[in-house]
Design goal:
Blueprint: H1 6-19, H2 25-37, H3 41-49, H4 58-66, H5 71-75, E1 77-80, E2 83-86, H6 98-114, E3 121-125, H7 131-139, E4 144-149, H8 152-162, E5 168-171, E6 185-190, H9 204-209, H10 212-215, H11 224-236, E7 237-246, H12 252-261, E8 265-271, E9 277-283
Parallel strand pairs: 3-4, 3-6, 4-5, 6-7
Antiparallel strand pairs: 1-2, 7-9, 8-9
Helix pairs in contact: 1-2, 1-3, 1-4, 2-3, 2-4, 6-7
Keywords: Methyltransferase, S-adenosyl-L-methionine, Transferase
EC number: 2.1.1.297
Function: Methylates the class 1 translation termination release factors RF1/PrfA and RF2/PrfB on the glutamine residue of the universally conserved GGQ motif.
Length: 295
């Protein structure tokens, strides 16, 4: 094999990835090189300018990425808000739109702290890689964070990402999780599976590598598990408690109706960074305003 400079190798990789349909071809080419060299993207670009050599194993990694193996599976890392999370086969790779959901949780917890609530309690239903729970535990250390995940492989990744965070992680079903916390939680958050059975993802990275258990929400509308998450939130939240859930853009109206039908008030949508309706939130009524609750 003819040796190449780092700059030549990155340009070659960018072309290969672009031809394979990878939209972020330049970025991925740099990040794969950085993974092998232990350098940031900017440092790779600087090293390329001064004529450094192509790292060993680069062509093999590029070939895997061209076959649409997720970048995060190749590097073993997903960057999410302020954290670098361990990810790989068997777990859903966290997406940027979920960062908006975390922000809604963080804002609510900080509001409660400012009002004098001591150690507010939050539950993450279907934590996957642990991205939401780990971020909340990191950004609001005063909060008591609990997370549940059904998949054994995803649970293992979440355990790795939550190690040292003091968050409680259990393996179980979001429908029945944490019975001991019924009516005691300040915030419940969920990014449940919500893709309808017939709506196979277009992106090969999701279609071929994200676990089906993390994608498909059940039922023709994909909302079976989101409905279950809403029911669990009703069970877990104290009066006045806050619930926020991610969903597909086209499901925003349906999810708002589900929350309203479950008795939530102040139901509002949250947009992701591209302006799409990707989460809906509501508040459990105060006992004084809800005849179904005991005083």
């Amino acid at each position: 094999m003819v040796s190449r400079s780092l700059g030549q190798a990155v340009r070659w990789a960018e072309q290969v990835l672009a031809e394979a349909g990878v939209e972020s071809a330049r970025t991925d080419a740099l990040l794969l090189a950085g993974h092998l060299l232990g350098l940031s993207r900017g440092e790779v670009e600087a090293r390329a300018v001064i004529g450094a050599d192509e790292p060993a194993g680069y062509a093999e990694l590029v070939a895997q990425r061209a076959r649409r193996v997720p970048l995060q599976h190749l590097t073993g890392v997903a960057h999410f808000r302020y954290l670098s999370l361990a990810v790989g086969p068997g777990v859903f790779v966290p997406r940027p739109e979920t960062e908006v959901v975390v922000q809604a949780v963080v804002d609510e917890l900080r509001r409660r702290l400012a009002e004098g609530v001591h150690r507010p309690r939050v539950v993450d239903l279907g934590t996957g890689s642990g991205a939401i729970a780990a971020s909340v535990a990191h950004e609001v250390p005063q909060a008591r964070v609990h997370a549940v995940e059904l998949s054994g492989s995803a649970h293992a990744w979440a355990a790795e990402n939550l190690r040292g965070s003091r968050a409680e992680l259990v393996r179980g079903d979001l429908r029945t999780a944490f019975p001991e916390l019924a009516g005691r939680c300040d915030v419940v958050v969920s990014n449940p599976p919500y893709i309808p059975a017939g709506a196979v993802p277009r992106e090969p990275e999701a279609r071929e590598h994200d676990p089906a258990l993390a994608l498909y929400g059940g039922g023709e509308d994909g909302l079976e598990l989101p409905r279950a998450a809403v029911a669990s939130a009703v069970r877990l939240l104290r009066p006045g408690g806050y619930f926020v859930m991610e969903h597909a853009e086209v499901q925003a109206g349906a999810v708002a109706r589900i929350l309203t039908g479950a008795g939530f008030t102040g139901v509002t949508g949250h947009q992701d960074l591209t302006g799409r309706d990707r989460a809906t939130a509501g508040r459990r009524p105060d006992a004084a305003t809800d005849g179904r609750m005991s005083p």
